[in-house]
Protein backbone atom coordinates (compact mmCIF):
# COMPACT_ATOMS: atom_id res chain seq x y z
CA UNK A 1 0.00 0.00 0.00
CA UNK A 2 2.71 2.49 0.99
CA UNK A 3 4.63 1.81 -2.23
CA UNK A 4 1.57 2.70 -4.30
CA UNK A 5 0.94 5.92 -2.35
CA UNK A 6 4.58 6.99 -2.38
CA UNK A 7 4.74 6.45 -6.14
CA UNK A 8 1.99 9.06 -6.59
CA UNK A 9 4.05 11.72 -4.81
CA UNK A 10 6.61 13.35 -7.08
CA UNK A 11 8.35 15.50 -4.44
CA UNK A 12 11.09 13.64 -2.50
CA UNK A 13 10.87 16.09 0.41
CA UNK A 14 7.15 15.36 0.79
CA UNK A 15 7.86 11.61 0.80
CA UNK A 16 10.38 12.11 3.59
CA UNK A 17 7.96 14.24 5.61
CA UNK A 18 5.25 11.57 5.36
CA UNK A 19 7.77 8.92 6.43
CA UNK A 20 8.82 11.05 9.42
CA UNK A 21 5.21 11.71 10.43
CA UNK A 22 4.28 8.02 10.29
CA UNK A 23 7.40 7.01 12.21
CA UNK A 24 6.76 9.57 14.96
CA UNK A 25 3.14 8.45 15.16
CA UNK A 26 4.19 4.80 15.61
CA UNK A 27 7.02 5.41 18.03
CA UNK A 28 6.14 6.34 21.65
CA UNK A 29 9.73 7.34 22.42
CA UNK A 30 12.20 9.89 21.06
CA UNK A 31 13.55 9.31 17.54
CA UNK A 32 16.88 10.92 16.66
CA UNK A 33 17.48 12.91 13.49
CA UNK A 34 20.43 10.58 12.78
CA UNK A 35 18.05 7.61 12.90
CA UNK A 36 15.81 9.28 10.30
CA UNK A 37 18.83 10.31 8.21
CA UNK A 38 20.13 6.71 8.14
CA UNK A 39 16.75 5.32 7.09
CA UNK A 40 16.09 7.98 4.45
CA UNK A 41 19.72 8.18 3.26
CA UNK A 42 20.08 11.93 3.65
CA UNK A 43 21.79 14.39 6.02
CA UNK A 44 20.57 15.35 9.50
CA UNK A 45 20.31 18.95 8.22
CA UNK A 46 17.78 17.75 5.61
CA UNK A 47 15.80 15.98 8.35
CA UNK A 48 15.73 19.17 10.44
CA UNK A 49 14.40 21.13 7.43
CA UNK A 50 11.78 18.44 6.73
CA UNK A 51 10.55 18.53 10.33
CA UNK A 52 10.37 22.33 10.17
CA UNK A 53 8.14 22.06 7.07
CA UNK A 54 6.11 19.22 8.59
CA UNK A 55 5.28 21.33 11.65
CA UNK A 56 3.51 23.84 9.38
CA UNK A 57 1.18 21.08 8.14
CA UNK A 58 0.09 19.82 11.54
CA UNK A 59 -3.13 20.85 13.33
CA UNK A 60 -2.67 23.63 15.90
CA UNK A 61 -3.03 21.30 18.89
CA UNK A 62 -0.28 18.93 17.64
CA UNK A 63 3.38 19.43 18.48
CA UNK A 64 6.63 17.84 17.33
CA UNK A 65 8.76 18.27 20.44
CA UNK A 66 12.53 18.29 20.02
CA UNK A 67 14.87 17.35 22.86
CA UNK A 68 18.39 18.56 22.27
CA UNK A 69 20.87 15.79 21.32
CA UNK A 70 18.17 13.13 21.85
CA UNK A 71 15.57 13.48 19.11
CA UNK A 72 11.91 14.17 18.37
CA UNK A 73 8.55 12.97 19.65
CA UNK A 74 5.01 13.67 18.38
CA UNK A 75 2.51 15.01 20.90
CA UNK A 76 -1.10 14.82 19.67
CA UNK A 77 -4.54 13.78 20.99
CA UNK A 78 -4.87 9.97 20.89
CA UNK A 79 -8.30 10.21 19.24
CA UNK A 80 -6.93 12.16 16.25
CA UNK A 81 -5.32 10.47 13.24
CA UNK A 82 -2.35 11.37 11.03
CA UNK A 83 -4.28 10.16 7.95
CA UNK A 84 -5.91 13.54 7.08
CA UNK A 85 -2.45 15.17 7.13
CA UNK A 86 -1.12 12.55 4.70
CA UNK A 87 -4.26 13.04 2.59
CA UNK A 88 -3.54 16.78 2.31
CA UNK A 89 -0.03 15.99 1.03
CA UNK A 90 -1.43 13.45 -1.43
CA UNK A 91 -4.11 15.71 -2.94
CA UNK A 92 -1.47 18.39 -3.59
CA UNK A 93 0.63 15.92 -5.60
CA UNK A 94 0.89 16.55 -9.34
CA UNK A 95 0.65 12.84 -10.24
CA UNK A 96 -2.42 12.36 -8.04
CA UNK A 97 -4.21 15.28 -9.73
CA UNK A 98 -3.33 14.11 -13.25
CA UNK A 99 -4.35 10.46 -12.70
CA UNK A 100 -7.61 11.48 -11.00
CA UNK A 101 -8.61 13.80 -13.86
CA UNK A 102 -7.72 11.15 -16.46
CA UNK A 103 -10.12 8.78 -14.66
CA UNK A 104 -12.83 11.44 -15.04
CA UNK A 105 -12.14 11.62 -18.81
CA UNK A 106 -10.35 14.97 -18.78
CA UNK A 107 -7.65 14.50 -21.40
CA UNK A 108 -5.62 17.73 -21.46
CA UNK A 109 -2.42 18.35 -23.39
CA UNK A 110 0.89 18.48 -21.56
CA UNK A 111 0.99 22.24 -22.14
CA UNK A 112 -2.52 22.70 -20.71
CA UNK A 113 -1.63 20.61 -17.66
CA UNK A 114 1.53 22.63 -17.04
CA UNK A 115 -0.65 25.78 -17.02
CA UNK A 116 -3.22 24.24 -14.65
CA UNK A 117 -0.51 23.05 -12.25
CA UNK A 118 1.75 26.13 -12.59
CA UNK A 119 4.58 23.77 -13.46
CA UNK A 120 7.32 23.77 -16.06
CA UNK A 121 6.28 21.58 -19.00
CA UNK A 122 9.59 19.68 -19.08
CA UNK A 123 9.47 19.05 -15.29
CA UNK A 124 5.94 17.68 -15.60
CA UNK A 125 6.94 15.46 -18.50
CA UNK A 126 9.85 14.05 -16.47
CA UNK A 127 7.54 13.26 -13.52
CA UNK A 128 5.16 11.44 -15.85
CA UNK A 129 7.98 9.54 -17.57
CA UNK A 130 9.19 8.34 -14.15
CA UNK A 131 5.67 7.28 -13.22
CA UNK A 132 5.36 5.41 -16.51
CA UNK A 133 7.95 2.92 -15.25
CA UNK A 134 5.55 1.92 -12.47
CA UNK A 135 2.57 1.78 -14.82
CA UNK A 136 4.55 -0.37 -17.28
CA UNK A 137 4.67 -3.14 -14.66
CA UNK A 138 0.94 -3.63 -15.31
CA UNK A 139 1.31 -3.02 -19.06
CA UNK A 140 -0.08 0.49 -18.85
CA UNK A 141 1.33 3.65 -20.37
CA UNK A 142 0.60 7.39 -20.29
CA UNK A 143 -0.05 8.78 -23.76
CA UNK A 144 1.55 12.23 -24.00
CA UNK A 145 -0.32 13.98 -26.84
CA UNK A 146 -3.48 14.36 -24.76
CA UNK A 147 -2.60 12.86 -21.39
CA UNK A 148 -4.51 9.61 -20.91
CA UNK A 149 -3.93 6.05 -19.75
CA UNK A 150 -3.41 3.41 -22.43
CA UNK A 151 -3.63 -0.35 -21.99
CA UNK A 152 -6.05 -3.24 -21.66
CA UNK A 153 -9.33 -2.31 -19.95
CA UNK A 154 -8.82 -4.92 -17.21
CA UNK A 155 -5.41 -3.45 -16.37
CA UNK A 156 -6.80 0.10 -16.29
CA UNK A 157 -9.54 -1.03 -13.89
CA UNK A 158 -7.04 -2.83 -11.70
CA UNK A 159 -4.92 0.31 -11.47
CA UNK A 160 -7.83 2.60 -10.60
CA UNK A 161 -9.31 0.16 -8.09
CA UNK A 162 -5.93 0.26 -6.31
CA UNK A 163 -5.85 4.05 -6.72
CA UNK A 164 -9.20 4.66 -5.01
CA UNK A 165 -8.79 1.86 -2.48
CA UNK A 166 -5.53 3.24 -1.11
CA UNK A 167 -6.33 6.95 -1.39
CA UNK A 168 -9.75 6.71 0.28
CA UNK A 169 -8.11 5.20 3.36
CA UNK A 170 -6.81 8.70 4.12
CA UNK A 171 -10.20 10.37 3.81
CA UNK A 172 -13.68 9.79 5.27
CA UNK A 173 -15.30 10.51 1.90
CA UNK A 174 -16.98 7.44 0.45
CA UNK A 175 -17.01 6.87 -3.31
CA UNK A 176 -20.40 5.09 -3.24
CA UNK A 177 -23.91 6.36 -2.41
CA UNK A 178 -24.85 5.58 1.19
CA UNK A 179 -28.03 3.73 0.19
CA UNK A 180 -26.11 1.29 -2.02
CA UNK A 181 -23.43 0.84 0.64
CA UNK A 182 -26.07 -0.17 3.19
CA UNK A 183 -27.66 -2.65 0.79
CA UNK A 184 -24.35 -4.32 -0.04
CA UNK A 185 -23.38 -4.54 3.63
CA UNK A 186 -26.75 -6.09 4.42
CA UNK A 187 -26.14 -8.80 1.81
CA UNK A 188 -22.70 -9.55 3.27
CA UNK A 189 -24.04 -9.82 6.84
CA UNK A 190 -27.02 -11.93 5.82
CA UNK A 191 -24.79 -14.44 4.01
CA UNK A 192 -22.09 -14.33 6.73
CA UNK A 193 -19.42 -13.49 4.16
CA UNK A 194 -16.39 -11.38 5.11
CA UNK A 195 -14.99 -8.85 2.67
CA UNK A 196 -12.72 -5.81 2.60
CA UNK A 197 -15.39 -3.08 2.60
CA UNK A 198 -13.14 -0.29 1.27
CA UNK A 199 -12.03 -2.53 -1.58
CA UNK A 200 -15.66 -3.46 -2.35
CA UNK A 201 -16.56 0.25 -2.62
CA UNK A 202 -13.61 0.95 -4.92
CA UNK A 203 -14.40 -2.01 -7.20
CA UNK A 204 -18.05 -1.02 -7.66
CA UNK A 205 -17.20 2.68 -8.12
CA UNK A 206 -14.58 2.00 -10.83
CA UNK A 207 -16.76 -0.55 -12.66
CA UNK A 208 -19.80 1.72 -12.79
CA UNK A 209 -17.76 4.73 -13.89
CA UNK A 210 -15.94 2.86 -16.66
CA UNK A 211 -19.11 1.09 -17.82
CA UNK A 212 -21.11 4.34 -18.01
CA UNK A 213 -18.32 5.94 -20.02
CA UNK A 214 -18.40 3.04 -22.50
CA UNK A 215 -15.04 1.55 -21.52
CA UNK A 216 -16.01 -2.13 -21.64
CA UNK A 217 -14.24 -5.43 -20.88
CA UNK A 218 -13.93 -7.28 -24.18
CA UNK A 219 -12.10 -10.52 -23.40
CA UNK A 220 -12.60 -13.79 -21.54
CA UNK A 221 -10.62 -14.52 -18.37
CA UNK A 222 -8.69 -17.81 -18.25
CA UNK A 223 -8.46 -18.18 -14.46
CA UNK A 224 -11.91 -18.36 -12.90
CA UNK A 225 -12.49 -17.08 -9.36
CA UNK A 226 -13.49 -19.95 -7.05
CA UNK A 227 -15.82 -19.42 -4.10
CA UNK A 228 -17.48 -21.36 -1.35
CA UNK A 229 -21.26 -21.83 -1.73
CA UNK A 230 -22.00 -18.96 0.67
CA UNK A 231 -19.60 -16.63 -1.12
CA UNK A 232 -21.03 -17.46 -4.56
CA UNK A 233 -24.59 -16.79 -3.38
CA UNK A 234 -23.54 -13.55 -1.71
CA UNK A 235 -21.64 -12.15 -4.72
CA UNK A 236 -24.47 -13.05 -7.09
CA UNK A 237 -26.92 -11.14 -4.86
CA UNK A 238 -24.58 -8.14 -4.76
CA UNK A 239 -24.21 -7.99 -8.55
CA UNK A 240 -28.00 -8.11 -8.95
CA UNK A 241 -28.34 -5.33 -6.36
CA UNK A 242 -25.76 -3.18 -8.20
CA UNK A 243 -27.56 -3.71 -11.52
CA UNK A 244 -30.92 -2.85 -9.96
CA UNK A 245 -29.58 0.25 -8.22
CA UNK A 246 -28.05 1.70 -11.39
CA UNK A 247 -30.77 0.24 -13.67
CA UNK A 248 -28.25 -1.52 -15.91
CA UNK A 249 -27.54 -5.05 -17.10
CA UNK A 250 -23.90 -6.12 -17.29
CA UNK A 251 -22.94 -8.18 -20.39
CA UNK A 252 -21.16 -11.51 -19.80
CA UNK A 253 -17.51 -10.35 -19.94
CA UNK A 254 -18.33 -7.35 -17.75
CA UNK A 255 -20.01 -9.56 -15.14
CA UNK A 256 -17.14 -12.08 -15.25
CA UNK A 257 -14.66 -9.26 -14.66
CA UNK A 258 -16.70 -7.91 -11.74
CA UNK A 259 -16.83 -11.41 -10.22
CA UNK A 260 -13.05 -11.64 -10.51
CA UNK A 261 -12.38 -8.30 -8.80
CA UNK A 262 -14.88 -9.11 -6.04
CA UNK A 263 -12.89 -12.33 -5.51
CA UNK A 264 -9.85 -10.15 -4.73
CA UNK A 265 -11.84 -8.46 -1.96
CA UNK A 266 -13.00 -11.62 -0.18
CA UNK A 267 -11.47 -12.72 3.12
CA UNK A 268 -10.58 -16.32 2.26
CA UNK A 269 -12.05 -19.21 4.26
CA UNK A 270 -11.24 -22.92 4.64
CA UNK A 271 -14.36 -23.90 2.68
CA UNK A 272 -13.30 -21.60 -0.17
CA UNK A 273 -9.80 -23.13 -0.09
CA UNK A 274 -11.22 -26.65 -0.29
CA UNK A 275 -13.44 -25.67 -3.23
CA UNK A 276 -10.40 -24.15 -4.93
CA UNK A 277 -8.30 -27.28 -4.38
CA UNK A 278 -11.04 -29.44 -5.85
CA UNK A 279 -11.46 -27.18 -8.88
CA UNK A 280 -7.73 -26.90 -9.65
CA UNK A 281 -7.12 -30.64 -9.19
CA UNK A 282 -9.87 -31.40 -11.74
CA UNK A 283 -9.48 -28.53 -14.21
CA UNK A 284 -5.81 -27.50 -14.20
CA UNK A 285 -3.43 -30.32 -13.42
CA UNK A 286 -0.34 -28.25 -14.22
CA UNK A 287 -1.20 -25.59 -11.62
CA UNK A 288 -2.28 -28.27 -9.13
CA UNK A 289 1.02 -30.20 -9.42
CA UNK A 290 3.05 -27.04 -8.92
CA UNK A 291 1.01 -26.15 -5.86
CA UNK A 292 1.41 -29.63 -4.32
CA UNK A 293 5.17 -29.38 -4.95
CA UNK A 294 5.13 -26.01 -3.18
CA UNK A 295 3.40 -27.49 -0.11
CA UNK A 296 5.80 -30.48 -0.11
CA UNK A 297 8.74 -28.05 -0.25
CA UNK A 298 7.39 -26.04 2.70
CA UNK A 299 6.94 -29.22 4.75
CA UNK A 300 10.64 -30.07 4.40
CA UNK A 301 11.38 -27.44 7.04
CA UNK A 302 7.96 -27.08 8.70
CA UNK A 303 6.94 -30.39 10.24
CA UNK A 304 3.17 -30.86 10.57
CA UNK A 305 1.08 -33.86 11.68
CA UNK A 306 -0.86 -35.48 8.82
CA UNK A 307 -4.23 -34.18 10.06
CA UNK A 308 -3.04 -30.56 9.62
CA UNK A 309 -1.53 -30.89 6.14
CA UNK A 310 -4.94 -30.65 4.48
CA UNK A 311 -5.65 -27.49 6.46
CA UNK A 312 -2.36 -25.98 5.27
CA UNK A 313 -3.24 -26.70 1.62
CA UNK A 314 -6.72 -25.20 1.94
CA UNK A 315 -5.43 -22.02 3.58
CA UNK A 316 -2.42 -21.40 1.31
CA UNK A 317 -4.02 -22.06 -2.08
CA UNK A 318 -6.09 -18.82 -2.24
CA UNK A 319 -2.84 -16.79 -2.14
CA UNK A 320 -1.10 -19.07 -4.65
CA UNK A 321 -4.12 -18.91 -6.96
CA UNK A 322 -4.23 -15.13 -6.56
CA UNK A 323 -0.67 -14.87 -7.89
CA UNK A 324 -1.62 -17.10 -10.85
CA UNK A 325 -4.51 -14.76 -11.71
CA UNK A 326 -2.39 -11.61 -11.33
CA UNK A 327 0.23 -13.10 -13.64
CA UNK A 328 -2.34 -14.20 -16.23
CA UNK A 329 -3.74 -10.67 -16.44
CA UNK A 330 -0.36 -8.90 -16.10
CA UNK A 331 -1.40 -7.15 -12.89
CA UNK A 332 1.54 -5.90 -10.82
CA UNK A 333 1.57 -7.41 -7.33
CA UNK A 334 3.59 -4.37 -6.23
CA UNK A 335 0.36 -2.35 -6.35
CA UNK A 336 -1.20 -4.45 -3.58
CA UNK A 337 1.73 -5.86 -1.62
CA UNK A 338 4.56 -4.17 0.24
CA UNK A 339 7.39 -6.61 1.10
CA UNK A 340 7.77 -7.18 4.83
CA UNK A 341 10.51 -5.23 6.58
CA UNK A 342 9.82 -6.07 10.23
CA UNK A 343 9.80 -9.74 11.26
CA UNK A 344 9.05 -9.15 14.95
CA UNK A 345 5.63 -10.81 14.89
CA UNK A 346 5.33 -14.37 16.24
CA UNK A 347 3.29 -15.22 13.13
CA UNK A 348 6.29 -14.37 10.91
CA UNK A 349 8.74 -16.68 12.69
CA UNK A 350 10.79 -18.68 10.11
CA UNK A 351 9.82 -16.26 7.30
CA UNK A 352 13.36 -16.12 5.91
CA UNK A 353 13.62 -19.92 5.83
CA UNK A 354 10.25 -20.22 4.06
CA UNK A 355 11.22 -17.48 1.60
CA UNK A 356 14.34 -19.47 0.71
CA UNK A 357 12.32 -22.68 0.30
CA UNK A 358 9.79 -21.02 -2.02
CA UNK A 359 12.60 -19.38 -4.02
CA UNK A 360 14.15 -22.84 -4.55
CA UNK A 361 10.73 -24.22 -5.52
CA UNK A 362 10.34 -21.40 -8.05
CA UNK A 363 13.63 -22.39 -9.69
CA UNK A 364 13.11 -26.16 -9.52
CA UNK A 365 9.40 -26.63 -10.26
CA UNK A 366 8.15 -23.30 -11.61
CA UNK A 367 10.70 -22.41 -14.32
CA UNK A 368 11.47 -19.17 -12.41
CA UNK A 369 8.08 -17.75 -13.47
CA UNK A 370 7.28 -15.93 -10.21
CA UNK A 371 8.94 -12.58 -9.50
CA UNK A 372 10.72 -11.82 -6.21
CA UNK A 373 7.71 -9.85 -4.98
CA UNK A 374 5.31 -12.69 -5.86
CA UNK A 375 7.53 -15.14 -3.97
CA UNK A 376 7.59 -12.79 -0.96
CA UNK A 377 3.80 -12.45 -1.11
CA UNK A 378 3.30 -16.24 -0.93
CA UNK A 379 6.06 -16.66 1.68
CA UNK A 380 4.57 -14.06 4.04
CA UNK A 381 1.07 -15.57 3.92
CA UNK A 382 2.33 -19.18 4.08
CA UNK A 383 4.52 -18.33 7.10
CA UNK A 384 1.64 -16.69 8.97
CA UNK A 385 -0.61 -19.68 8.21
CA UNK A 386 2.03 -22.24 9.25
CA UNK A 387 2.68 -20.48 12.55
CA UNK A 388 -1.03 -20.11 13.18
CA UNK A 389 -1.64 -23.83 12.51
CA UNK A 390 1.36 -24.95 14.56
CA UNK A 391 0.29 -22.85 17.53
CA UNK A 392 -3.40 -23.66 17.20
CA UNK A 393 -5.12 -24.95 20.33
CA UNK A 394 -8.31 -27.02 20.19
CA UNK A 395 -10.70 -26.87 23.15
CA UNK A 396 -14.10 -28.37 23.74
CA UNK A 397 -16.50 -26.64 26.16
CA UNK A 398 -18.56 -29.09 28.21
CA UNK A 399 -20.99 -26.93 30.15
CA UNK A 400 -24.00 -27.87 32.28
CA UNK A 401 -26.56 -25.06 32.34
CA UNK A 402 -29.08 -23.19 30.22
CA UNK A 403 -28.43 -22.33 26.57
CA UNK A 404 -28.10 -18.65 27.51
CA UNK A 405 -25.47 -19.42 30.17
CA UNK A 406 -23.55 -21.71 27.82
CA UNK A 407 -23.52 -19.10 25.03
CA UNK A 408 -22.33 -16.39 27.42
CA UNK A 409 -19.46 -18.56 28.68
CA UNK A 410 -18.55 -19.45 25.09
CA UNK A 411 -18.46 -15.79 24.03
CA UNK A 412 -16.35 -14.83 27.05
CA UNK A 413 -13.82 -17.52 26.17
CA UNK A 414 -13.73 -16.58 22.46
CA UNK A 415 -13.10 -12.91 23.28
CA UNK A 416 -10.43 -13.71 25.86
CA UNK A 417 -8.37 -16.48 24.24
CA UNK A 418 -7.74 -15.11 20.73
CA UNK A 419 -7.95 -16.37 17.16
CA UNK A 420 -5.51 -19.29 17.53
CA UNK A 421 -7.81 -21.05 19.99
CA UNK A 422 -10.67 -23.09 18.49
CA UNK A 423 -13.55 -23.73 20.89
CA UNK A 424 -16.20 -26.35 20.09
CA UNK A 425 -19.47 -26.50 21.98
CA UNK A 426 -20.22 -29.96 20.58
CA UNK A 427 -17.36 -32.53 20.65
CA UNK A 428 -15.96 -33.46 17.25
CA UNK A 429 -14.54 -36.97 17.57
CA UNK A 430 -12.24 -36.43 14.58
CA UNK A 431 -10.32 -33.75 16.53
CA UNK A 432 -7.73 -34.43 19.19
CA UNK A 433 -8.48 -31.79 21.81
CA UNK A 434 -5.72 -30.11 23.78
CA UNK A 435 -8.00 -29.17 26.68
CA UNK A 436 -11.54 -29.56 27.96
CA UNK A 437 -13.14 -26.66 29.82
CA UNK A 438 -16.04 -27.70 32.02
CA UNK A 439 -18.18 -26.74 35.02
CA UNK A 440 -19.08 -30.37 35.80
CA UNK A 441 -17.01 -33.34 36.99
CA UNK A 442 -15.61 -35.45 34.15
CA UNK A 443 -13.78 -38.78 34.21
CA UNK A 444 -12.01 -40.98 31.66
CA UNK A 445 -11.00 -38.05 29.44
CA UNK A 446 -7.84 -38.12 27.35
CA UNK A 447 -7.40 -34.34 27.31
CA UNK A 448 -6.68 -32.42 30.53
CA UNK A 449 -9.74 -30.76 32.07
CA UNK A 450 -9.82 -27.14 33.26
CA UNK A 451 -12.68 -26.63 35.70
CA UNK A 452 -14.61 -23.35 35.87
CA UNK A 453 -17.51 -21.97 37.88
CA UNK A 454 -20.99 -21.26 36.52
CA UNK A 455 -20.07 -17.55 36.06
CA UNK A 456 -16.49 -17.81 34.67
CA UNK A 457 -14.70 -15.11 36.65
CA UNK A 458 -11.80 -12.90 35.51
CA UNK A 459 -9.42 -14.88 37.73
CA UNK A 460 -10.56 -18.11 36.08
CA UNK A 461 -9.94 -16.65 32.61
CA UNK A 462 -6.42 -15.63 33.69
CA UNK A 463 -5.82 -19.15 35.02
CA UNK A 464 -7.02 -20.67 31.74
CA UNK A 465 -4.62 -18.43 29.77
CA UNK A 466 -1.72 -19.38 32.04
CA UNK A 467 -2.54 -23.07 31.60
CA UNK A 468 -3.06 -23.28 27.83
CA UNK A 469 -0.34 -20.80 26.84
CA UNK A 470 2.22 -22.05 29.40
CA UNK A 471 2.60 -18.56 30.85
CA UNK A 472 3.83 -19.75 34.26
TrEMBL record:
Which Pfam families has this protein been placed in? HTH_11, Mga
Question: Does the keyword section mention Transcription regulation?
Answer: yes
The alphabetized UniProt keywords are: Transcription, Transcription regulation
> What region holds the Helix-turn-helix type domain?
16-73
InterPro entries reported in the protein's UniProt record = BglG_antiterminators, HTH_11, Mga_HTH, WH-like_DNA-bd_sf, WH_DNA-bd_sf
Top-rank taxon: Bacteria
Taking every annotated instance into account, which residue ranges of this chain make up the domain Mga helix-turn-helix?
81-164
Name of this protein: Helix-turn-helix domain-containing protein
Source organism (scientific name) = Bacillus bruguierae
Amino acid sequence: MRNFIYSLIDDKAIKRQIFILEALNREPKLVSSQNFADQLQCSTRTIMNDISQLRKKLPGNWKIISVKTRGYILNKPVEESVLPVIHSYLTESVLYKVMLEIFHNKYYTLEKWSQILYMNKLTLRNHLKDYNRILNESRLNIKFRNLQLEGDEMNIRYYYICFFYFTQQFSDQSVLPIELRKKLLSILYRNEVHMDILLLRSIVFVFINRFYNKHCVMKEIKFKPIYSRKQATCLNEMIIEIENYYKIKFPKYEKDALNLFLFFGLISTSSQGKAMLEYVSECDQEVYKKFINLITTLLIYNQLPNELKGKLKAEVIPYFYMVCILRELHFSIRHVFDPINSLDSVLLRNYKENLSLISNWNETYNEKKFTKDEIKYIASHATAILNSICNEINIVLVFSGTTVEKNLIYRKLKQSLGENVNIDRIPNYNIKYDFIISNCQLSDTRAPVIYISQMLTTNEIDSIKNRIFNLN
